[in-house]
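pasting input
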Amino acid sequence: MRIILAKSAGFCFGVKRATRMAFDATEEHDHLSSLGPIIHSPQLVRQLEEKGVRVVDEVPPAGDGAVIIRSHGVTRGEMEKIARRQLEVVDATCPFVKKAQEFAAELSADGYHLVLVGEEEHPEVQGIVSYGEEGRVSVVANPEAAEQLPRSSKIGVIAQTTQSFDNFNAIVGVCLRKAKEVRVYNTICDATSVRQQEAKSLAARVDLMLVVGGHNSANTTRLAVICRELQDNTRHIETADDLEPGWLEGVETVGLTAGASTPSWLIEQVVARLETLAGT
Amino acid sequence: MRIILAKSAGFCFGVKRATRMAFDATEEHDHLSSLGPIIHSPQLVRQLEEKGVRVVDEVPPAGDGAVIIRSHGVTRGEMEKIARRQLEVVDATCPFVKKAQEFAAELSADGYHLVLVGEEEHPEVQGIVSYGEEGRVSVVANPEAAEQLPRSSKIGVIAQTTQSFDNFNAIVGVCLRKAKEVRVYNTICDATSVRQQEAKSLAARVDLMLVVGGHNSANTTRLAVICRELQDNTRHIETADDLEPGWLEGVETVGLTAGASTPSWLIEQVVARLETLAGT
Ligand code: F3S
Ligand code: F3S
């Protein structure tokens, strides 16, 4: 039996990097906190807690060790507070998110009305907009909301990194009718679409497709739905224990992918169990 | 009988301005040439010829009087030649076209690959692209052509002033997939769409709609088609002589508009004849 693991299974570049930085920091700092959970994986947050990383909601007081900044960043106000309190910083903001923050600052300083395509409640969005000038920033979730934008002489458009291109494109179209000049930085990260594309092409050519990740993870569930469209024999599992030996009967190739919040060791456990069951 | 003349009938702002500048120039200069016909109206070109304005294809030699630049502009190379030959210039380039030329120069100097939405053969387009850096400019007529654009780090998009917004919008959408940064200046002039909108609302509320302009003028014919959709009783005429008295029977209000290349005296003659026929 052949097992094919998708290259893009599990954590994206930015989350892998943040995780590594956080674990490295536990070796160097005795007193560590993370401003908000580093990523959406409860298992990983627990592992870090065991190594002494406290999750805090607010910037800790002066003298309180080092602060880890999560992959989707924090607000400019929080960054300034950290600097004022002279806390050490382990900045694990994803470079793509950082870029979006920088574009927000640049566009706003250049007099553009800043339009951020995204969900107002998302922490990444709150971080990015905080770099724009107050009163000249709009968060817009869809083209209908964009229709409500005031007319401006110039509009700058950026996106939350996980937005879909089609939504972004449609909103730019509305902005073109709201201002004579529109400047667009496409800050969409392709990690999600690459993972989905790879899962699709894998699902189409295997006998069994496994998708690993929490049943309550929206992006893992979405991944399983996409695979099932091309491969009836698709299974969404949370851990290696969910694997049923009967599934492997008559199966020559197994495809394997995992959601964005699935840690690599969970994926490795599934691979190990598959190998055991296949007797290879 | 009431006659309602559309405010936007006939020449647009830029053509009116160029015409006025050309006639004013005939008072001041003995030796005058226009680099290409000033506007698309043969009647007007003839009138100017009678006042001594020769239409030339190339920049005249040094010492050859003054040169009129038509409303849709000329190329940077021609402008430089005129300067080198120290000819006097009557620059009747429409300010909106000039703006597009300036944006082309600015975007190109700032390192953007310049995309001009328009028709390659159009003189306005040739003028605008000449302000971009050679080898970094593409003229794109439709989204299919835009698909052939090379990937660039940044793309700047502008439009020929008479383009439709929908085509412009669709091409911007394609550009968003070709570059991470896209800067757009909407240089579309709304003279055409305003004229069409006004004609529509007029056609719907009169008993007879008259559209004045050459039968071989594409934009006048289009105007008549648009009016006919709302008013069966629409007539496309070239001059006041085409008016048939029978058309006015039982008519209480007459609407009147004219294509972009119809001179105002042709429109005035129609109004005068209407008044005579109605005995007002
Ligand atoms: S956190 Fe991940 S999804 Fe993209 S923006 Fe950074 S690589
Ligand atoms: S020539 Fe006329 S159509 Fe617009 S760009 Fe100038 S007013």
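fyi The longest helix of chain B spans residues 13-28.
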